[in-house]
Model the fold of this input.
Amino acid sequence: MAKSHRRRRAARSMGKHSVKDLSSSNRDPPLAMLEEDEGSQFDWLSNLPDDMLLNIVERLDTADATRTSILSKRWKQIPNMLSKILIMVGPTDSDQDRSDDDVARATATMLAATQSLLEHRSTSASAYPIHHLCMHFFLGDESIRIGRISANTIATHKVGVAEFKILTEKEGKRCSADDRLAYGKKLNSLINDSPNAFSCLTRLKLENLTLGESDFPKIFRLCKRLEFLHLENCDMGFQSLLEVEHQRLRELEIFRCDFERVDLNWLPELTTLTISSFTSLHDPLSCGYVPLLHTVSIRNSALSWQKMLKLSEFLGKATVSNLTLGFEKEKIWVTPEDPRELSQVFSKLRLMNLAAISKECDLTWTMFVLHGAPSLEELCIRVCDCFGVWDKDEREKFGYSEERKDVGAKWEAYDFKHCNLAVLRIFGFQSKDKFFNYAKAVIKAAVNLKDIYLHEKPACKVGCSRRSKKYPRSTMEKNLVRSSLSMHTHPLLRLHFSL
Done:
């Protein structure tokens, strides 16, 4: 027992010597060491090297990381050392209700946080760079002050990624045409007051704005470092044309915008394009010089007066490898085409996702994708077991089609073979003839098909939340599916059931 006690005393003694050695060899960093009084416990965390301490602290959100400055005098330097600063007004869902009181409180808190974290830092001689500066704020009188502080910070520090998400006081569903016009003028005032802040942005998110014809080109010229742009409920007037030319832009997202067409004239670095809900009478997109564009997602709840689109025409010279087309449970808005017409667009296509197909639609028309994309490796079909907008008066009011939703999607069956398709996924699968016939058609054409995944999980979470009565769950039901697909004649093909 005495021997064990002596060992513990020796270990404590060795620990004290190691602390003294560390103290004498690492005095330079401002947070490196903590003087300890006789008998006090040693603060191991504060004595970590600055880079290790920051690595730990920056795993917290910015507000919690800032609160650590009250722990001791030495920790007061933490806010000036943070390399990741995210200051946000709170939940910023575009559909969430925003009351005047909520906006006023959030703006006051945002301004106070900006002044506390950035204003002092802008005037200090701190040499610590900012790797990521993210600001989410409401567009209004106080946004001018936020823009100026951000500009000063960017001017005095090396900022890697700078992001602005600029919100409007009213959410999209409450914004009138006059509101969007007023917000557009406020944005122009902010840009004119703080051009240096915008010139260093790498990410920009805008919503609920009507801008003049020259405003978007001005933004593209000013934001020379821009790599990501998100536009929601924005326009330049009714049936306006958005022309995009930018040296560094890589990702472009356009949601519920009222542009007649988006022309991607010259975007040498663009890799990802997302368009959701367009009101165009004609082709909503034109692709010019986009040599690196590989991922495209286009979703639209098509109205009765919108034309059927040809992918070969509006995708132009783009050669995408990952393509998603979403139909939002309404009419199919693409026209099946001859494979010779699709050869340019689909020559490098590897993954195709056809989403939110109404349950009343047949699936045979989707075979045109397989026929026109010889390099396709995975085909994903998502069927919705719900009606979407079903009230007759509402459908008429908003202009939804009264015809069958796949009336324009006619495909003439061809006897062809596909050598590269390896995976077929069907979401919203049911034990019905249209699913069996479709799966058998794909099996017949795709001679090297390896896996078929049949998912009960529907394509939309809200309207299709109920469990399908037609999905095979029991062993007997699954065996009937295997028999219907003649799986015994395809020994190398695997069939998977997934709830």
Notes: The radius of gyration is 29 Å. The chain has two domains: 83-293, 302-313+325-499. Confidence is low (pLDDT under 50) at residues 4-39. Residues 15 and 21 are 10 Å apart (CA to CA).
